[in-house]
Amino acid sequence: MFLIADSGSTKTDWIFCTPELGVIKMVSTVGFNPIVQKEDFIREQIHHTFRNDESVAEVTDLHYFGAGCSSEERRGVIKNILEEVFKNAAIEVDHDMQAAVIATCGDDPGFSCILGTGSNAVFYDGKDIVPPKGSLGVGYILGDEGSGAQIGKIILRDFLYKELPYELQNHLEKDLGLDKDIILYNVYQRPNANTYLASITKEVEGFKHLPYMHKILRYVFTDFFRHNIQIFPEHQTYPVHFIGSIATHFEQELRNAALPLGIKVGNIVQKPIEHIVRYYLHKSKQHLH
User: Fold this and answer.
1) Ranges 5-19, 127-141, 235-249, 255-269: which has the least confidence
2) CB within 10 Å: which end of the chain, N or C, has fewer?
3) Got the DSSP string for 68-105?
4) Integer CA distances (angstroms), 219 to 101, 155, 159, 188, 213, in order
5) Non-local CB neighbours of 61 within 8 Å, separated by 6+ positions
6) How many CB atoms lie within 10 A of CB 101?
7) What is the pTM of this model?
8) Alpha-carbon torsion (131, 134, 139, 140), positive or negative
């Protein structure tokens, strides 16, 4: 049996498969990101989830793709924890961008991007992944252009300054019960502030018809393209594919931002895990034959 794990900053999907039976079951947990979460938190969550799962002993191959796993050190953190739980498995830990490439590009050249709680982008030349030169890769405080965290941060800032359109200000204040103390507590004192910021973006999706939201979305998506895509000479030659909740929920706004830049938005995949599982099932069946 093999196990595929696709982990963003908000959610992790774990899918157990065999070449003969295909998908056996799926488990969902919180997302893991070793950049913004402590090792003990990740260990506790994974141990708790799989402590009494009988399928764990049957897993022989585990492919884990995770946010924040861009360095050998951070991949090692995740791999060590997984080895404590999945004792019979050969474990491979890779960056979530590798998963994005498998899900969107397949074997064809193109750009593969993540727009969810966080953001990232790479160019795939058909053989190798090429990250943007000078890419920050530092998370939501200094980077993550176009992400749910960036959008949420702008909206909360404007909320505190009382610069939002009335209906949006009223929704956050009355319907969600937000005030300055609640916001500051969630952003500065609780863990996973990036997830909290992105949750605000999800709450305002119903207001994307407002000119204010058009302006914000055009700004953040243009910011994303400028820092992550336009720096490649190939940015107008190959399609730019996306996965993630922000790309899915704001697809039209994303395509509108790309148009004047001469950038062609390609596939927007809602659930990359399904594409990744199909890839490994096909690979394992080929191996059997």
Assistant:
1) 127-141
2) C
3) T--SHHHHHHHHHHHHHH-TT-EEEEEEHHHHHHHHHT
4) 26, 13, 18, 25, 10
5) 2, 3, 89, 90, 92
6) 25
7) 0.77
8) negative
CB 261 within 8 A of CB 88: no
State the pLDDT confidence band at 6, using cuts at 50, 70 and 90: very high
pLDDT band, very low/low/confident/very high, at 139 (cuts 50, 70, 90): low
pLDDT for 71-97, tens place per residue?
A: 999 999 999 999 999 999 999 999 888
Contacts of 48 (CB under 8 A, 6+ apart): none
